[in-house]
Amino acid sequence: MEKKKAELLEGVAQYYSAKLVEHGETPRGVDWNSEESQVLRFSQLTKLIDSVTRFSVNDLGCGYGALYEYLASRFQEFDYRGYDVSADMVRVAAQRYAAKRNAQFLTAAEPDGIADYGIASGLFNVRLGHGDAEWRGHVESTLNVLDRTSLKGFAFNCLTSYSDADKRKDYLYYADPCHVFDLCKRRYSRHVTLLHDYGLYEFAVLVRKVL
Questions:
Q1: Bridge partners of residue 105, in order along the sequence
Q2: Nearest to 202, CA basis, from 18, 31, 12, 3
Q3: Which ranges constitute the DSSP H helices of the chain?
Q4: For the range 189-198, what are the long-range contacts, defined as Cβ-Cβ under 8 Å and sequence gap of 24 or more?
Q5: What homologous superfamily does CATH list for 2-208?
Q6: Are 56 and 116 in contact (CB under 8 A)?
Q7: Between these two residues, 139 and 12, which has the higher pLDDT value?
Q8: Which pLDDT value is given to residue 118?
Q9: Domain ranges across the chain
């Protein structure tokens, strides 16, 4: 099982490393269409953060660290740790924010410590050649990780199964938002928000452990 997961993550790492080479430190370098859509996603996911004092964030699938930049433009006091399976992404992010004392970047599939909040943007989209059942298992095991490593809650997004059939791509994973909401409600918290109204072919889920 662990060998199979390692092979799965290696394929994802190679995919994103190739995107970085092709497009550089840009939204397209992490497979988003535009900076506007990237910022819109961050604005939905960070609705989870409800803090007037210093807080900490684990960013799983951090890419070149764009979420750090978004957080820094809106919050003054926070600690950020970014994790990515692509060593190339982590290297670029570490160089990009080398002067930021509240930011760290590590090559890893999961956080090595607990933060107030866990965030995963775009982490579940690229399944490559893996089937629905296999990728769904990977998504659920990763949500378990987010739950285990977050104190106050976690947020993530997925491409939606309500996407138009003619716009879908075989190498991407489209999740059923109703199934994902039910899973999070039953497994992680009574306080779950499903956001499916922000104009993209995706949805965001916010899981709050405390109110």
A1: 82
A2: 31
A3: 2-23, 35-45, 66-72, 87-96, 132-148, 177-187
A4: 189/153, 191/153, 193/47, 195/44, 195/47, 196/160, 196/162, 198/40, 198/44
A5: Vaccinia Virus protein VP39 (3.40.50.150)
A6: yes
A7: 139
A8: 98
A9: 2-208
Q: CA–CA separation, 59 vs 189, rounded Å? A: 20
Distance CA 68, CA 4 (A): 31
The Cα 85–Cα 109 span in angstroms is: 5
- Encoded amino acid at 117, one letter: Y
Q: What is the pLDDT of residues 10-63, one digit of tens each?
A: 777 777 777 777 766 666 655 556 788 889 999 999 999 998 899 999 999 999
- For residue 122 the two structure tokens come to 């775009």
Q: For residues 155 and 194, what is the distance between their CA atoms, to the nearest angstrom?
A: 10
Residue 126 has what DSSP assignment?
B
Burial level of 188, CB count in 10 A (0-12/13-18/19+)? Answer: buried
Under a CB-based contact definition with an 8 Å cutoff, are residues 141 and 166 in contact? Answer: no
Indicate the pTM of the whole model.
0.90
Q: What CA–CA distance (Å, rounded) separates 172 from 159?
A: 8
CA dihedral angle for residue 54, residue 58, residue 61, residue 66, rounded to 10 degrees: 10
Spatial CB neighbours of 55, under 8 Å, sequence gap ≥ 6:
49, 75, 77, 78, 79, 116, 117, 152
Three-class SS state of 171: coil
